[in-house]
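request received
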Amino acid sequence: MSIIIDHVNYIYGEGTPLATKALNDICLTIPDGQFIGIIGHTGSGKSTLMQHLNGLAKATTGHIYFNGEDIYDSDYDMKKLRSKVGLVFQYPEHQLFEIDVFTDVCFGPKNLGLDRREVELRAYEALEKVGFPKELFYQSPFELSGGQKRRAAIAGVLAMEPEVLILDEPTAGLDPKGRDEILHQIKKLQKESGMTILLVSHSMEDVAEYVDRIIVMNKGSVMFDDTPREVFHHYKELEEVGLSAPQVTYIMHALREKGLNVDTDVTTIAEAAKEILKYYS
Amino acid sequence: MNIVKAENLTYEYIRRDEDGNVEGITTAVDDVSLRVKQGDFVAILGHNGSGKSTLAKHINAILSPTEGTVWVDGKDTRDEEEIWNIRQTAGMVFQNPDNQIIGQVVEEDVGFGPENIGVPTEEIWERVTESLRAVGMYQFRKYSPNKLSGGQKQRVSIAGVLAMHPKCIILDEPTAMLDPNGRKEVIRAVRGLNQVEGVTVILITHYMEEIIHADKVFVMDRGKIAMEGTPREIFSQVEKLKALRLDVPQVTLLAYNLQKKGVPLPDGILTTEEFVKALGL
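response:
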C-alpha cells in the first residue's frame, strides 16, 4: 500500500494571463510507514503538493494513486481519501472551535457517521497519542497554552484514524521545548502505529533529527529526494535555493578545513559529538 | 541613557466565563523591573505563555500596566496625551507580515505611517527611500507586496516602522513564519538598523542563533525575569535554559555535550569560529 504520484503537473489559473505553473512533472512514491520531511523555500510548491495528496487541489495533468486506486477516477470516493490522508494545516489551533477539547476532537469522527461510543473512543485515543494531559480534556481550547492547543488540533485529525498524516510546519511559533515534544510525539506515532508521516518544515535541524527521507522542492519540481545525510551533502546547491544544512553540518566542514579528518555529512549533534570524540578522547 | 525603563511592572488579565462573570485573574507580567539602554540590541527569550509578548506590548503602550510604571524615552506610557509620541518612539513589528501590510505598492505602504502624522509630502518620500534602503528593499519599491516573499514582506513592515523615525523597534517573533533565507534577511536587516542607524532593538524570538550578537538577553518565566545577562552568560547555562523550555544554538550544545565527555572546552561557545579555535585547530 502506498501513494504514487505519477507525472503530476499543476497550473494555477490555467487559461488566464496569470497562469502559473506550481507543480512541474512530479513523480514520487511514498511507501507505508515512512517519516518524510518536505523542505523548500516559500513558494517552492511544497504546500501545493501536499494539497494534492488529499484531493484539496486537483492535478492539471498526471495521476495520483492511493493504495492502488486512481484518485481522479470518476467513481473514486474523495471523502474516504480525506479520512485516510489527514492534513494538519499551519497554525491548526485557529480551527479549534468547540466548547471543550474533547468535543472538538470528536467533531471529525462524528462527521464520519460513526456511533457515539466509537467517536468518543477515537477521540480519547487520539488525545492520548499526542500526549494531551487528561485533566485538560474538558477545558475550553482557548484557555490552553500554544503547545497544548497545537496538540489538541493534531488529535482532531488523528481521531479520523488516517493512514497518512501530513503536517504543515507543526512547530511554527512554539518554544524549543514545545517543538521537541511535538516532534517526539509524531515520531513515536510513526514508530508505534506505522503511520506514514509527511512533515513540511523550515527547520533543517528538526528535519535532520527526525526524518528518514527528505524531499526538496524548488520551483515546483523535486530537486532532491534522499536520506538527510545525502541531501545535506548538497548544502551548496541547497543554499542557492534559499535553504541550508543544519548548523552542525557547517561545523563539521569548518573542522575539516582546519585539517581534522571528520565526516562532513553528519547532520545531528549526536553524530557530530561521536565523530569529534574520535579525535579528542 | 535608558530608552525603556520598567519599574515593578505588573499586568493582570481578568478571565471571565461565558456570562461575563469573573473566573479568576492571571498575572501575565509579575513585578518586572528592567532597563534598556539607548542603542542596545536586547533579546527577550521565554517559553510560550511566559509573558514576553505582554511585556513587549507595554513598551509601545498597546497595554497599560495594572501596577508599576513603564517609561519610554522618559514618558510614562499611562499618560494618554503622550500615547502617540510613545508609539512613534517605539515601533512594533509582529509575527505575521500579511497582517501588517496595507498598501497596494511597497513604497505607499512604507509612507502610510509618516503620512498619518502629517509629515510634508517631500519628506515622506525621503523617509520612504531611506527606510527601504536600510532594509535592502529599495529596488522593490514599485512592487505589489503580494509579489514578495515572507522575508521581503517582513522587511517592508520594518521599513514602515522605520519611516516613523523611531528610537526603538520591538520585534515580536518576526521570523517565526519565515523560511531559513527569509529569517537570515530579516535578522541581517535588524542588525543593520541597530549598528548603522543606531536604533534600539528589542527582539523576541524562539530561535537561539538569532540573538548571539545581542548586547543583553532577558529570559522570562511565569511573568518574571528568570535570567539576565550577555548571550555568553545566558547560553553557558544549558541545563537551566532547558528547564525553562528553551534551548541553545547547535554549536553551543555540541560543545556542551563534548565538554561533558571530558573534552576541555570553555562554557558558552556561541559560534563555529570560537568552537574550532577552542578545539585548538
